[in-house]
Amino acid sequence: MRFLARRIGFLLVALWAALTVNFFIPRLMPGNPAQAMMARFHGHINPSAIHALEVAFGVNTHESLLSAYFSYINNTAHGNLGISLLNFPEPVATVISHALPWSLGLVGVSTILGFLIGTVLGAVAAWRRGGVLDGVLPPVFIVVSAFPYFWIGLLSIWLFAVTLGWFPILGGYTETATPTLTWGFVGDILYHSVLPAMTILITSIGGWILTMRNNMITVVAEDYVKMARAKGLKPRRILWQYAGRNAMLPNLTGFAMSLGFVISGAILVEYVFNYPGLGFLLLQAVVNEDYPLMQSLFLLITFAVLIAIFIADIATALLDPRTRSNP
Amino acid sequence: MRILRAILSVLVRAGAFLRRDRKAAAGSIILFVLLVITAFPKWFTPHDPAAEIYTPGVGLSWSHLLGTTSFGQDVFSQLVAGTRQSVMIALIVGFISTVISVIIGITAAYLGGWIDDTLSLLTDVVLVIPTFPLIIVIVGYVKSAGFWLMVFVLVFTGWSYGARQLRVQALSLRNRDYLLAAKARGESSWYVIAVELIPPMTSLIVANFLGAALYAVLAASGLQFVGLGNINEESWGTMLYWAQNNEALQTGLPLWALAPGIAIAVLGSGLALLNYAFDEVANPALRPVRATKVKGARV
């Protein structure tokens, strides 16, 4: 119970920190860019929307910083994120809800796949210490990890889309097709997601392989693994039921820690492929100076990462009694 | 004289380390070559990198080793000229982040109590907030991040991982006998930290420097790629930006877009290879084993 309370406490502190950083960034910027943005939109949008923006960015208000802060927290807590200037007059929440499924599908699926495949490969590499996998994988992925994520995307576009013509160059679906729930359209979506998904998979998998391999090397040397061997258990059973299960635990925590990196990489991958997800939207918002959309996306992405970390922590605690007794 | 001899002995030991460890040797050679290019770019550039005076869109040739851009610039010369910025970002961000990590990590572990709780909480919060979206939001207001703003945001977001690792290691050293002995002798905290606590952590500190430098190179090039850097500066990231904006891949100039990425990867691999070698120094279990030995051990 104490463990759970600590984790919930940490989640709340981190959420609060993200909210607060989000509040102060526009106010600390030199030259007040928010004011410039407001000036551009004066006369184009109605006065109450203007006022909401003024409160959100601290322009022209005689409010104290503290009361502005509380009304901002209050607005955010009620899902009142403001109006997108890029897609005026749609509310930010609507714009985001259009992009969200794309990111969840692409980034969610390829991240989880990367974690699973990487963990298995890492375990096998460590199990056959000195074997082919163990010799080849670490150096290959050291080099791969040094490539910029988006560059792998560029390379795969050039190789598989431009040169070989196997896959489309960009987009989430064929532009002329109408988004309907038919097999043809679903197939079209999958077809478009192959290259971006592969890019995320290749760039994220190395981290899981290396950490799993390193954990596994430590675990395989433990006495209970020797004991299992001495009992004459089948190697496959020792690998997965004895060593693998325990070596995976630190990797789960690592999953939480590196999720932020994966999301960061995915933003650029979406950008490279013009994939209509949150990352692409975030960069669109930046280029078009749509600050309300930009800040809401930052909050949303951060919240998603924090909650995923929280879930991974809880899962670790459920699977590993040691973390519960010794927080 | 004693200092000279100490430096000499460090060099000799470094030399022996490089001869034993091929990963470290490869990493050092890469970084050395890039440092030479950074210091003397003129030696390696056959053409003026900014001049738009050559035939646009030319492929590989002897006069243009990597072809030209669609503006008529020499790609190879741009690549050489861009080396400096990436190397400087790596070194400066790596150094400042590491100093902050060492200060925060060791202070937390050494002082303990509520100071440790506060600093650890701060470190963990910074660690879990996804950095790239945060950087994008900060830089988004400024529009074009010059060199020093870039350094600032990368340090701001890059110190936490190292601080956490260093704290853990410092905690494990804190109650060792030799440290307690130094305290019992009545040495000052500064002495204990500087002379007794930090030296055994050197390999981890170096590994952190390399990790932070790698992070800086990749994040900076990503920012420049999407056009949030200063698009008029010469760097690998801005080369990628111009290549992407002129559809280099689709218009038959793949080298323009692919070469800077490979350059970033070469620098990154240099840092990562050294980092990996230092990991193996710190944790001998990770060192590569000979296949024959394992066959014997596995039975």
In short:
The complex is a heterodimer of chains A (327) and B (299). Chain A has helices at 2-28, 33-41, 47-57, 65-77, 92-127, 132-145, 149-163, 183-220, 223-230, 235-272, 278-287, 291-319, 321-325. Chain A has 327 residues and is mainly alpha-helical.
Tell me about this structure.
- The complex is a heterodimer of chains A (327) and B (299).
- Chain A is built from 13 helices and no strands.
- Chain A has 327 residues and is mainly alpha-helical.
- Chain A folds into two domains: 22-77, no CATH class; 92-324, MetI-like fold (Orthogonal Bundle), CATH 1.10.3720.
- The mean pLDDT of chain A is 78.
- Chain B has 299 residues and is mostly helical.
- Chain B has one domain: MetI-like fold (Orthogonal Bundle), CATH 1.10.3720.10.
- Chain B is 73% helix and 0% strand.
- In chain B, helix 3 runs parallel beside helix 12.
- Chain B is globular, with a radius of gyration of 23 Å.
- Chain B starts with a helix and ends with a helix.
- Mean pLDDT of chain B is 79; it is low at 291-299.
- The chains are: A mainly alpha (327), B mainly alpha (299).
- At the A-B interface, helix 1, helix 6, helix 7, helix 8 and helix 10 of A face helix 4, helix 5, helix 10, helix 12 and helix 13 of B.
What attributes does this structure have?
heterodimer; A: about 325 residues; mainly alpha; MetI-like fold; B: about 300 residues; about 75% helix; globular; disordered C terminus
